[in-house]
Write a structure and sequence with these properties.
CATH topology of the largest domain: Chorismate lyase
Strand order of the largest sheet: 6-7-8-11-10-9
CATH class of the largest domain: Alpha Beta
Radius of gyration: 21 Å
Strand content: 25-35%
CATH superfamily of the largest domain: Chorismate lyase-like
Order of helices and strands: EEHHHEEHEEHEEHEHEEE
CATH architecture of the largest domain: 3-Layer(aba) Sandwich
Number of strands: 12
Length: about 250
């Protein structure tokens, strides 16, 4: 690694090199490996000892970087088996990213029906949210999602087309984040949501089978990949007469 000497002081976790703690530099390198596909979703990582030897840093420095990445859901530790790149399986998606819950039952993963998937030039609002230029293209997906056979939300998803080439062609699965990671090596690690009460317009009313003007909960989500790039803008319009948004604060 750059800015490193052979002294033990250089190997101490938390030592600042170039105004950045050494373990943070190690984390940056690990995240780059994930972003480049060197470490794929579901893949086991080399041991802490192997990584420390490869990078000529202490095992404690490697452990601190891995601990942070695990806390941020980028990695998963499996007792007695090792550390893995997190996969966006349905269980993880359910509890980390899908928050709409029936009032009278447990959290369940929804079914989805895609009504539109097209590639086109990004609109000004999409360029602004995703950090694109005037000539960049996006993939725009619309789908309706149901719980126990009842339509409960309609959503529009927009993503940079260059990051997900050809995703609009063929079948689009329910678990989009799993598809991003498995087919394209794009691992979603963070999302920010804004919630607002709105009234159903003609499109939402038709998809959800409710009158125009029905109260809905709008969830505006921007998601980032492991390399820090805005990778998806999603707006979900949700019926909440028999469902609620569950946020488990820990």
């Amino acid at each position: 690694m750059a800015d490193r000497t052979s002294s033990e002081d250089d190997r101490r976790p938390g030592r600042t090199v170039g105004f950045r703690p050494l373990y943070r530099q190690v984390r940056d390198m690990f995240e780059q490996r994930i972003a480049e596909g060197t470490w794929a979703a579901g893949q086991i990582l080399p041991s802490e000892m192997q990584l420390a030897s490869e990078l000529s840093v202490s095992q404690g420095t490697v452990r601190k970087a891995l601990d942070e990445m695990t806390a941020d859901n980028i990695l998963v530790r499996r007792q007695g088996r090792g550390t893995y790149v997190a996969s966006h399986d349905e269980k993880r998606i359910l509890f980390q990213f899908f928050k709409l819950t029936p009032d009278d039952g447990p959290l369940r993963f929804p079914d989805s029906v895609v009504t539109e998937a097209v590639r086109r030039v990004a609109l000004p609002s999409e360029r602004d949210r995703l950090g694109l230029t005037g000539t960049d293209e996006v993939v725009a997906i619309e789908r309706t999602r149901s719980l126990s056979g009842e339509p409960v939300l309609v959503e529009r998803i927009v993503a940079p087309a260059d990051a997900l080439p050809g995703i609009e062609i063929g079948e689009i699965p329910n678990n989009l984040y799993g598809l991003y990671s498995e087919r394209y090596g794009v691992v979603v690690v963070r999302a920010q949501e804004k919630l607002k009460a709105v009234a159903a317009g003609p499109r939402e009313a038709a998809a959800l089978g409710v009158p125009e003007g029905t109260p809905l909960l709008a969830i505006d989500r921007l998601a980032w990949s492991v390399d820090g790039r805005p990778i998806e803008w999603r707006v979900s319009m949700c019926l909440t007469d028999r469902h609620h948004y569950l946020s488990d604060l820990k």
